[in-house]
Amino acid sequence: MQSPANLFRERLLPSVWVYVVVLSLVAMLAIAVGAAYSQWSGWLTFALIATFCVFALFIGSPVIAVSDHDLRAGRATIPRSQLGSVEVLAGPQMRGAQNVATRYLLLRPWRTRGGVLIELIDEDDPHPAWLLTTKDPARLAVALRRGGAID
Q: Disulfide check for 45: which of 15, 30, 32, 133 has CB 3.0–4.6 Å away?
């Protein structure tokens, strides 16, 4: 069985400032441990907790993937046959689109400047649309429109 081709794939990794803040907090903890016990225990604490935090930030970052057959956004998957119109949003439009409670949202605070609003044509779906943040909303919209019956 042949695997479907990925038309778009992006992992929503945190920005550099998120890693800096997390590592700064870990450094404060390590300094406290080092002052209370020994310098080596402080460095060991920093190395272990920093490694765990960086790994957790990477693994916890959702993936948006568009294939020939479906759209995956984090844990959610929907067939491309259920997708309707696709709209690229930026700035105030993106903030305004977040205020609809019935939409499926995949938002990351470090990626909220741009996104894509995808209307669904399945009337039985509890979510009438999906709102996804992405680093490159235009490329995601082109991948969603490509090869399907999407507006």
A: 30
Helices (H), 38-103: 39-59, 92-97
- Give the SS3 label for residue 38: coil
Buried b (16+ CB within 10 A) or exposed e, 31-40: eebbeeeeee
Cα 142 to Cα 66: distance, rounded to the nearest angstrom: 10
With cut-offs at 50, 70 and 90, classify the pLDDT of residue 110: confident
Q: Give the model's confidence band at 3: pLDDT under 50 very low, under 70 low, under 90 confident, else very high.
A: low
β-pair type (129-133, 104-106)? parallel
Query: What pLDDT is stored for residue 93 in this prediction?
Result: 84
Give the predicted TM-score (pTM) of the model: 0.81
Cα(22)–Cα(95) distance, integer angstroms:
26
